[in-house]
Design a protein that fits this description.
The protein is mainly beta. It is built from two helices and 13 strands. The chain is globular.
Length: 194
Amino acid sequence: MEPLTRCENGHYYDANKHTACPYCGVQNLGLDIQKTMAKAPEDLDNQEVGVTRPMNEAPPQEEAGKTMGIYKRQMGIEPVTGWLVAISGPERGKDYRITAERNFIGRSPDMDIQITEDESVSRDNHAAVSYSPKHNIFRIYPGESKGLVYLNEQEVLTPETLKSHDIIEVGQTRLMFVPFCGDAFVWEESAESE
């Protein structure tokens, strides 16, 4: 496992998934959101911790040419747009961040939303949840695996629009959808548009 990166405020995060600290990113937006503090696993105490680059600094050469999401390209981070919360199943009580565009659900560490403890969830692409910044809408998609996905007890065969507190079922896990972006708030395209 790759060591976690520690930001200047003491938060630990996976630098392979985030270009900057996702905890500080929310705080720096000036929103009235309760400060979240990530705790470092005990086994990281003696390991070297990486350094992040400021959001306005150019990405390293190896990132050049990589596909980036809309918000990541504009803001330097993947801001949260909503959450899925496990209300039943092996990971009951756990929450999963939804970011802009597609978020693939599965057991694999390569998935955006990893439900690792539910062996009835397909390893790769059991389902996907998306947020469209252009249309300010969330959708659920069936996956490319054998496993089925349900929305409010109905099988999802084509993309379906999600509403606040909808229930999604994958394997033995039931997830409640909680949007952050919507009628009351959307991420601005850039700081100049404020």
